[in-house]
Specification:
With 247 residues, this protein is α/β, with parallel strands linked by helices. The chain has six helices and eight strands, in the order βββαβαβαβαβαβα. β5, α3 and β6 form a beta-alpha-beta unit. The chain starts with 24 loop residues before the first strand and ends with a helix.
């Protein structure tokens, strides 16, 4: 069965968001903090582990709901976080991106607070799953949130924000890296650099490379999409999260 929207990212791939009908909604608000996006829960009673899905640089698209449903069907509460809600996006490699980076990090932290407030969520078992820019963001913020038990990096890397890679990965929870070996947007060397930095810092990391695959290899609307690689990658992620959350 094809999991529609499995990558739901395109991050730096530049695929337009045309055709998106459903917009993110305000999920949670407290003084000085907001969480926008959407959330899908499993049908069974909780509490359940949770994942926060972080899109790439092209931002929100309604297709992310398909991805959230796939995670919910696998037993996870899935929050699609619109971390651009307060700031808007920013061009790749721009000074504007760096100015907004700390706001995006705080938005992820707020999203964790929101999930922890939900009775259906097991607040000790929350993971960040990022795609391209979202993966850079997940690595950037993962070590700063005690509730984050795992980080999944789809074709991203580290050192994308205001801290050097070596600082970001200190204390990072267990990390899974998934990257296409022929990625022309974020070269696979970023995956190797991230893995080596985590190992040097004494962290846990598993890296899965996909021969012949390019950026956004699991985004169904992308020319680089591969159904077989998408299915394989999703299975790897679910197995990684279940193993981590049993610890």
């Amino acid at each position: 069965m094809r999991i529609v929207g499995l990558a739901l990212v395109l991050a730096m791939a530049g695929v337009p968001a045309a055709g998106c009908a459903q917009q993110p909604r305000l999920l949670w608000q407290s003084p000085g903090a907001e969480v926008w996006g959407d959330v899908v829960t499993p049908g069974a009673p909780g509490p359940h582990p949770a994942v926060i899905l972080l899109y790439g640089s092209t931002g929100w698209r309604a297709d992310y709901l398909d991805l959230a449903r796939a995670y919910a069907d696998s037993g996870f509460v899935a929050l699609i976080l619109d971390y651009y809600a307060r700031t808007g996006g920013a061009a790749i490699g721009s000074a504007e991106k760096l100015r907004k980076w700390e706001t995006w990090r705080r938005t992820v932290q707020n999203a964790v607070e929101y999930l922890r407030s939900m009775p259906v969520v097991d607040g000790r078992r929350i993971a960040l799953v990022g795609y391209s820019r979202g993966a850079f963001l997940a690595v950037s913020v993962g070590a700063s949130i005690p509730s984050i038990a795992a980080v999944v990096d789809f074709y991203g890397g580290g050192g994308g924000g205001t801290l050097p890679l070596e600082e970001e990965v200190k204390g990072l929870p267990p990390l899974l890296i998934l990257h296409g070996e022929d990625d022309r947007i974020v070269p696979v060397s970023f995956a190797h650099q991230l893995r080596d930095a985590v190992v040097a810092a004494g962290g846990q990391v598993d890296m899965r490379l996909f021969p012949g695959q390019r950026h956004a290899f699991n985004a169904p609307w992308a020319a680089t999409y591969s159904d077989s690689a998408a299915q394989q990658a999703f299975g790897v992620v679910i197995a990684f999260l279940r193993a981590r959350f049993r610890d």
